[in-house]
Design a protein that fits this description.
47% helix, Rossmann fold, 9 helices, five-stranded parallel beta sheet, 218 residues, alpha/beta
């Protein structure tokens, strides 16, 4: 592997989760989700989990020091010894700087950030066209992967539902928030020569066919 810590960057709808899952499976390393880690820490009642729970119950954002502490605890577990994929983290420059410092402390080298670039019109079609079966959870897209009968799941005849936040106004707001907060990470990793860019306009299997050999061959 080119790096022990892989970070996926990209706007909402870019396919970060899909590629992270595929890389995790093919390379035999865990996909580490900050959301999953927070829920697990809360469930176990760890000191950091209890602090996170207090913040969430008060309707406040979980502070960086708590999230970063939970990330460091997780990557110290045995299954992450050969590497790991970070899903949903870092989101800001301070969080990226924490990852750099953590890896240096642990002697694990530099991270590699994979930026999945997708044109905005493609993102809008992916997100506004998304429909989910109310019975089995199968996901369709009216533009790219439509059901045989409009509004009906091919598998079980369940009604296809559209998420309330999958409308163009909300999605454009999410893209603005991403560009303001998270996209500076692209420049951060590019300047450090730790960025690998892929064409996210392609089909997911096409992306994986080029990305995984690149990660394996380094």
């Amino acid at each position: 592997m080119r790096a022990q810590a892989l970070i996926f960057l990209g706007a909402p709808g870019a396919g970060k989760g899909t590629q992270a899952r595929e890389v995790s499976k093919e390379l035999g390393i865990p996909q580490i989700s900050t959301g999953d880690m927070l829920r697990e820490a809360v469930k176990k009642g760890t000191p950091l989990g209890l602090e996170a729970k207090r913040k969430m119950e008060a309707g406040e954002l979980v502070p960086d020091e708590v999230v970063c502490g939970i990330v460091e605890e997780r990557v110290g577990q045995p299954d992450a010894a050969k590497g790991f994929v970070l899903d949903g983290f870092p989101r800001t420059i301070p969080q990226a700087q924490f990852v750099d410092a953590m890896l240096e402390r642990k002697g694990r080298g530099n991270p590699l950030a994979v930026n999945i670039r997708v044109d905005e019109d493609v993102l809008l079609k992916r997100l506004t066209g998304r429909r989910t079966c109310s019975v089995c959870g199968e996901i369709y897209n009216v533009h790219f992967n439509p059901p045989r009968v409009d509004g009906i799941c091919d598998k079980d005849g369940g009604k296809l539902l559209e998420r309330a936040d999958d409308n163009e106004t909300t999605i454009r707001q999410r893209l603005v928030a991403y560009n303001n907060q998270t996209s500076p990470l692209i420049d951060y990793y590019r300047k450090k020569k730790l960025l690998h860019e892929v064409n996210g306009n392609l089909e997911p299997d096409q992306i994986a066919r080029t990305l995984i050999p690149f990660l394996k061959g380094a």
